Amino acid sequence: MAGMYAVYHGPHGLKAIAERIHKLAKLTDLALQRLGYNQLNKIILILYLSNFDDKTKDRAIAIRKWR
């Protein structure tokens, strides 16, 4: 399946997809930093490791209750 995906999109298409995903990951990281989250892992792949303080935890609970 992955091979056919690569054949369909070609090298330029795969590079464009990877660059788009990387930009979105960086934007997500910046947005989460503004909310008080700090990324623990050096490279963003699929997993985003974070730690947060009590203030951030309270804010997350408030947002969850608001929804």
* Beta-strand content estimate: 5-15%
- Residue-averaged pLDDT: 78
The whole-angstrom Rg is 17 Å
Q: Would you identify the regions where 5 or more consecutive residues have pLDDT less than 50?
A: none
Q: Helicity level, as a percent range?
A: 55-70%
Helix/strand order, N-terminal first:
HEEH
Biggest sheet details: 2 strands, antiparallel
Q: How far do the termini sit from each other? A: 38 Å
- Biggest sheet, spatial arrangement of strands: 1-2
The tally of strands reads 2
Alpha-beta content class: mainly alpha
How many helices in DSSP terms? Answer: 2
Give the CA-based shape: elongated
Summarize the topology.
Blueprint: H1 2-34, E1 38-39, E2 50-51, H2 54-66
Antiparallel strand pairs: 1-2
Structure description:
With 67 residues, the chain is mainly alpha-helical. The protein is built from 2 helices and 2 strands. Strands 1-2 form a two-stranded antiparallel sheet. The longest helix is centred in the first third of the chain and has 33 residues, at 2-34. The protein is elongated and about 50 Å long. The termini are far apart. The mean pLDDT is 78.
List the main descriptive attributes of the protein structure presented here.
single chain; mainly alpha; two-stranded antiparallel sheet; 2 strands; elongated
Summarize, please.
The protein has helices at residues 2-34, 54-66; strands at residues 38-39, 50-51. It is mostly helical and 67 residues long. It is elongated.
